[in-house]
Amino acid sequence: MQTTFSAVARERLRQFGPALILIAVFAALATAAPGLLRWRAINGLLMDNAPLLLIIVGLTLPVLLGCLDLSVAAVASFSAVCGAILSHSLGSWAGPVVVAGAAVAGGVQGWLIGRLQIPSFVMTLGALGIFAGLALFISKANMVGIRPGLAFFDVLSARTGGMPNAFLIVLAIAAVLSAVLRFTPFGRDVYAFGQSELASYISGVRRDLVRTVAFAISSACAALGGMMMLSQTLFANATVANGLLLPALVGVVVGGTAISGGIGGVAASLIGGLIAVLIRVGATISGLPPASQDVAFGIVILIAVALTTDRSKMGIVK
């Protein structure tokens, strides 16, 4: 009886805890800085943080499999640099081409993880180094820019009905992925894979395909996030998104998506992402140095992982 009660309480905490935390953090920040309640301030926050939220949305799929994609921030930086360079020859088509290329690269990572039996964090850590190095090489460690007037980037930086298009795109992609996970065989396979890879294999789930698609979506979202960053400033460099990896991981796990896989979803991660955004805002309002954000994110991710990890799937912790 006690075990059942604990399981129910844990599930309720996972379902409703992130939303309550989001409300509490926002209320505390609004009390400390009333200007945050102004629509202009909220609008600016959504615009500035749309790339981070999109990375979080995409990263959710590998985490639901029980995997990690540590390359997302490097992919975003590399994509922003590639988008700027290719825009001089391809124009607006540079954005879609780069996003499609990132999806292929992410899919290859997912496929190799299964084929070579390499842990996902090792594979994507190696990819992080590759993309970061390539971004430095092709940019020559300098800023690269795009000219104004390119339709693809203008759409990303514009507003519709007073709302930033970038944030509306995040909501649209999150809604599509949520529907895919909830109503399609692929979505059921993702959750089955995350609950037990061996059991999913026995039941006929094509593990390599599921993993490949999940990592392709994660990389594509990261690349589009890089395009959003490029559209906002018209400039990019090799490290433009490097600071987004830790808050992206925090957003996923704080939202209740278990790092052990099989539990959570895109909507939950989006709520967690908004919490991560407010943590960054709170650190700024408090006048704390930028390094304090990483300290806060480090503490939060340790607590969140401890609370959401399903230890029944784990053998010996190494």
TrEMBL record:
It is a multi-pass membrane protein. Pfam families: BPD_transp_2. The lineage of its organism: Bacteria, Pseudomonadati, Pseudomonadota, Alphaproteobacteria, Rhodobacterales. This is ABC transporter permease. It is found in: Cell membrane. Keywords: Cell membrane, Membrane, Transmembrane, Transmembrane helix. InterPro entries: ABC_transp_permease. Its main location: membrane. The keyword Transmembrane applies. The chain crosses the membrane at residues 20-39, 51-81, 93-113, 125-146, 166-187, 208-228, 266-285, 291-309. The keyword Transmembrane applies.
